[in-house]
Write a structure and sequence with these properties.
By secondary structure, the protein is α+β, with helices and mostly antiparallel strands. The strands form five sheets. The chain has a six-stranded mixed β-sheet with strand order 4-3-15-8-9-12. It is globular and about 45 Å long. A hairpin with a 4-residue loop joins β17 and β18 (223-228). The protein has a single domain (13-228), classed as Fumarylacetoacetase-like, C-terminal domain (Fumarylacetoacetate hydrolase, domain 2, Alpha-Beta Complex), CATH 3.90.850.10. Helix content is 14%, strand content 33%. Bound molecules: manganese (II) ion.
């Protein structure tokens, strides 16, 4: 019998498209400012920065078609539509040329952000966790396996609020490609099966309010739909 002092939390999971299988989530890594136009709208120079990372807890994942409560302590709750990479084979010091061998699949995700808290932390040189890693901050649509979709490197990425398109770009505009991101991350942290990497959002992030519906998608990877409660 277990000697745990209380039952362990169940492992958070994400649906795998076209199957009843589930992808068990270990960690969620997120890349900051990985599209030039978004870096500029956040007041940064996209040409001078190596990629940087922050994280969300695994239990921040939210199922597609769910309702996300408007989070506390913010009056500027933002959407960021993103390509999500699901790692199926772990590794450290992965060369970029071998990086795609570590990918299980790809999904559409939203990096929900308490922008006011993030920017206050940024200005004060404090951690981003309260702005980025709060409860239910990572809606992820079903993961499409590499065997099904290959390794998409181009295609429309978009997000709409109540049917009005707000973000509309192409994943070919990623400053740091998926192989680069995997390689660079793995030289600093060992990647494990179950890790998710949110690869950054294109420009025109913005606020969402209670009762609004976010829909978004990436060409070839389906769509996501989240209601703000
Ligand atoms: Mn983001």
């Amino acid at each position: 019998m277990s000697d745990l002092v209380f039952p362990a939390m169940p492992t958070p999971t994400v649906a795998v498209a076209g199957t009843s299988a589930r992808f068990p989530v270990r960690r969620i890594f997120c890349v900051g400012r990985n599209y030039a136009a978004h870096a500029r709208e956040m007041g940064r120079d996209p040409d001078r920065e190596p990629p940087f990372f922050f994280t969300k807890p695994a239990d921040a994942v939210v199922e597609n078609a769910a309702t996300v409560p408007y989070p506390p302590e913010t009056s500027n709750f933002h959407y960021e539509i993103e390509l999500v990479v699901a790692i199926g084979v772990g590794g450290a010091d992965i060369p970029a040329e071998r990086a795609l061998e570590h990918v299980f699949g790809y999904a559409v995700g939203i990096d929900l952000t308490r922008r006011d808290l993030q920017l206050a932390a940024r200005e004060q040189g404090r951690p981003w966790d309260w702005g980025k890693a709060f409860d239910q901050s990572a809606p992820i649509a079903p993961i499409h396996r590499v065997a099904e979709v290959g390794h998409p490197s181009a295609g429309r990425i978009w997000l709409a609020v109540d049917g009005v398109v707000k973000q509309d770009s192409d994943i070919s505009k990623l400053l740091w490609s998926v192989p680069d991101i995997i390689s660079i991350a793995s030289h600093s942290m060992t990647l494990r099966p179950g890790d998710l990497i949110m690869t950054g959002t294109p420009e025109n992030v913005g606020p969402v309010r209670r009762g609004e519906v976010m829909t978004g998608g990436i060409e070839g990877l389906g769509e996501i739909r989240i209601l703000v409660g």
